[in-house]
Design a protein that fits this description.
mainly alpha; 70% helix; 9 helices
Amino acid sequence: MKPSAEQVGAIRLFGLTGVALQTELQAIEQEFGVTVRLEEAREPSDSTDIYYPQFEEKVRKEAASMARHYEIFYSLETSIRRLIEQRLEEAGGGEWWTQKVPPALVNGVADRMQREIDAAVTLRSTKPIDFTTFGELGEIIKTNWDIFGDTFNSPKAVEKVMANLNALRGPIAHCSPLAADEVVRLQLSLRDWFRLME
């Protein structure tokens, strides 16, 4: 049985409230130097666990505080990519990447994939969509509005939310602490993303 729109909204709101609460608890811990949340006991899994305690305590606390934001972004970015992939595959079959994505974007992604191959590192993915930015994901949605128009309520709103997410992604992806205002902006942007689909 498919949940109603109200039930889906309530579940999303519950999830967002949990994220907001977690973020607030982290801020309290950081500000007052206390531990409020229970931490999971971990067994040393590799040599990095031996060296980790040698980093400054302040850096470790910042890392712990930023971990939740990274989790949110990872989950959001991955779910957006999967949604786009699913919808375009349903509409265009297995060749959707070359048929439904703007050629300039296809070429840019091919260049990024080749740079990873040339760097002799493990390729992050075999799927081209996993090499796209938030801005490019927004462009794919807008270019295929005939497919996504029944999912999102406004192409301009998609563009705005994706731009906000892209701006917030920088500090998270590049290991900089997120200012308190930006934590709030992340929570609002997350809420805005789900609002696009109401």
